[in-house]
Amino acid sequence: xxxxxxxxxxxxxxxxxxxxxxxxxxxxxxxxxxxxxxxxxxxxxxxxxxxxxxxxxxxxxxxxxxxxxxxxxxxxxxxxxxxxxxxxxxxxxxxxxxxxxxxxxxxxxxxxxxxxxxxxxxxxxxxxxxxxxxxxxxxx
Length: 140
What we know:
Shape: globular
Strand content: 25-35%
CATH class: Alpha Beta
CATH superfamily: Histidine kinase-like ATPase, C-terminal domain
């Protein structure tokens, strides 16, 4: 049975570090550390930053979902701007932003997005390697 951790934050930049800390804690609780934890946390940071920056819905919430199912970990970031789909952008070296999705693409095994009835979801998949076998806590 997959383990899931859901984090919700208000759509504001000051809440991005809180989301990043909660993602890191969920991963540590599952025994996921080192390189994979760094990659997932950095990817979450980029996707949450994109959501709070580009979501055009006022007073919205951003939802971060981590799902651990066997050797696969899925990170999903959803916001209510259903039509504001992400676009991979190749930034010039002197640009200060625009590299978030490229970073997610480089760190994850795959990434993409889909539209839900009232939201969009951007996701990234990561494969656990043998030494990083996670443990899912049983019960509260």
